[in-house]
């Protein structure tokens, strides 16, 4: 393999390009053209075979429809009691016979032109009192020796027989009239002669590049489009066709069981039709060969003449990542490329160091940005003066025995006191719940009996640490935006429970709810990380939790206008606030 590689390396660029052309262009084109031609030919032949199968099936259905016409009419006559009564009556007066004939037999014979498959209807009877004319014939002992007589079924099943003579083939339907057991005086038979022209048309009117044969159960040819094959002879698959494709469709009806329609097609005709396509494929293949060959030769000479000027200078390049080309004397495009490679090689070490340093600075900047963002989020409330003012007012209220007012001010002061703890990012669940209860007592003082609330906390979660003010803003939203606009009383249910993954906070209110369009916009803003405009409180909580827990927490807001709103927050379990802080620092 090394010798082959070395021999290939010793070749001139022109020869290498020619070899590449032959392997990557010439050979694939030859193979693809052969495969394309073979696939196209096979698909074409298969399609022609499917067409032959369809034409054979269509011919079978056409013949079946013609025979079904006669069978359908025979069934109508077979079940007509008037016909039995007419043929089984012993006539003493010709007038009575003619009257019955006109009312029954003549009516059926008039309908023959309406059935294109039926050429004539004849009736046979052993009744000697009839006038044998107008399609009524005497059934005598001589007829008992005929094939059609012996084939009559005792149960009245129609029999289809093919009669062959020098004039050709005729198909006849015979049926014994024995449906009504009441009429047993004489034997009666109906005979339908099928129209040979319609049967011939059913065979000849099919457009197919081959020959069609209608065969009986013994494979005798009844009708055919093959002028070299006589009716009445036995069909054999040993034909003079070069590449025969023979398809056979069997009849499944019990009256013509084992009859079949056979199509014989010469596939050499199909292959001859492909000759024109073959010429175009060959012409296209030659164009694909010649044009790329001229282009490869031209390019190989151009490369050879230009690369030969720098060939001696590239042989001594060491196989290192940042090795430079030696000095290049030529000033053409390839020489400029070599000089540019040298300059680029010298710069790569510098760029590598610069990019590495830039990445470190970028990471440090991102970390500082997160810390600054966290600090900014936490520095929104620092109202020392408000806390002092509230404490003064509370003391004055106590001095004036305004206990309820003093309690509300104490709750308010507690809320502001908590805002002074922003420097401490974590609080226990118990502290957060106390803050929530203080807020709800203030709202209860404000709304009176219009507001009821219930707070449930799993005792095991009392000392569990969470980010400060993670839940209170949602309680505020439920009160101010859910209950306050509502007419009548409102209720707020809060639960903090333990789940398999951590802590779950759920707040439900039966307030006015959030309009659907606004809810969709809010959910999209949370998902996309976009600014939420008037929903600053929710935005602050969401991004604070994201900074602490990254993607390990879940926040879900559900609402139905006029029904209420439910907010669910799932926080992962943390052994200490240090673990979450380390995650933020990462």
Automatic annotation (TrEMBL):
Kindly give the SUPFAM superfamilies that the UniProt entry links to this protein. ATPase domain of HSP90 chaperone/DNA topoisomerase II/histidine kinase (SSF55874), HAMP domain-like (SSF158472)
Q: Which Pfam families does the protein's record reference?
A: HAMP (PF00672), HATPase_c (PF02518), His_kinase (PF06580)
- Example of a GO MF term: phosphorelay sensor kinase activity
Q: Topologically, how does it sit relative to the membrane?
A: Multi-pass membrane protein
Q: Which residues form a coiled coil?
A: 334-380
Sorted alphabetically, the keyword list is: Cell membrane, Coiled coil, Kinase, Membrane, Phosphoprotein, Transferase, Transmembrane, Transmembrane helix
Report the CDD domains cross-referenced here: HAMP
Compartments (UniProt record) = Cell membrane
- InterPro entries this protein is in? Bact_2-comp_sensor_kinase, HAMP_dom, HATPase_C_sf, HATPase_dom, Sig_transdc_His_kin_internal
* Record flagged with keyword Kinase: yes
- Provide the transmembrane region boundaries: 18-37, 280-299
GO CC, one annotated term: plasma membrane
Superkingdom of the source?
Bacteria
All copies of domain HAMP, residue ranges? 301-353
Q: Spell out the protein name for this chain.
A: Histidine kinase
- Source organism: Halolactibacillus miurensis
